Amino acid sequence: QEPFVESGGGLVQPGGSLRLSCKYSPSISTMFSIYATGWYRQAPGKQRELVAGLTTGGSTNYPDSVKGRFTISRDDAKNTLYLQMNSLKPEDTAVYYCNLFPYHEGHWGQGTQVTVSS
Questions:
Q1: Over the Cα atoms of the chain, what is R_g?
Q2: I want to staple 94 with a disulfide (CB 3.0 to 4.6 A). Which of 1, 43, 60, 64 is the partner?
Q3: Separation CA 82–CA 73 (nearest Å)
């Protein structure tokens, strides 16, 4: 089973919303007591960046670029990590991934494409 499988991306107009989902394997969930989890994104020509983090204690953190617009959450009963994205901007266009934090190189999934455009 893949460690992480992302879904929920698509084309949305500026100002719109999307909710991304990330299904994780049961073996990954055993690592949550040690590692934080996070959503990352990579835009064309740019480095991959962390856009939302969920610590082992349940705290969340976001960079200024998405603070107040993105919300990370996790449902352990469903083995799913979520990213609610509101007030989307064209600069949010990227492929979005989930992983542990710090990320594990071998755990990257295919990602899900988010395109914000009118």
A1: 13
A2: 43
A3: 5
